[in-house]
Amino acid sequence: MILCIDVGNTQIFGGIFRDKELVLQFRKTSRQRFSSDEVGIFLRSVLNENKLNPDFVKNISICSVVPDLNHSLRSGCVKYFDTEPFFLKPGVRTGLKIKYHNPLEVGADRIANAIAAVNLFPNKNLIVVDFGTATTFCVISKSKEYLGGIILPGIKISMEALESKTAQLPIVEIKEIEEVIGKSTVESIQSGLYHGQIGMVREIRSKIIREAFADEDPIVIGTGGFARLFENVKLFDIINQTLVLEGLCQAYLMNIKLEKEI
User: Fold this and answer.
1) One of 55, 109, 215, 237 is an active-site residue; which one?
2) CB atoms within 10 A of CB 64
3) Residue 258, in any domain of the structure
């Protein structure tokens, strides 16, 4: 089995692949720092509670945008799984041609998304929109060129900024809102968050298509925790909320020669 772990600024998103099939998903907050023992015990407990034997995990693949947690993650994997984890980072094999001015700047989670997207849709122009702590766009050409992307505040960050930087605006439930014009402060905030993201995605998508793909429609993939919120407004050709885990599994297989059947 391969244990894949995506460490974001808000959450740890993990999964177990058995015979290349995702058989378990789990999440844990990453806002608080943790020790190697805490992360190791948590991971083994999650597997045990889901009737998966932790001793069968011999392969671990990690992408992290929180460097402060990497030492604890590595040490926990070594101590509790007797396995040196693979970190998706600059210099490893990805199958992509990174066109950033400085390829070292591209987040590992974005690379994992791109790897999975190219595997799902080979020889296609692609846009991956990830609704996480930040909302990010990744632009990939049909020749596997990672052309670049866009990063902007995520929907939850936007809500928290309104609450913390204003005197009277409250925290609200993030939800689908059919009508644009809110009839209360709460509805107005909810409308702004929801319809603002829709308008942003549509505008940026159209500009990407003109700039990168000569008006040839790409496949647009939605992923991340809030992607399903926009399922009914036809922003995406497909929603795949496990894209980053699939990319981590594929990156591991590209880089590590397994000595035994997974």
Assistant:
1) 109
2) 22
3) no
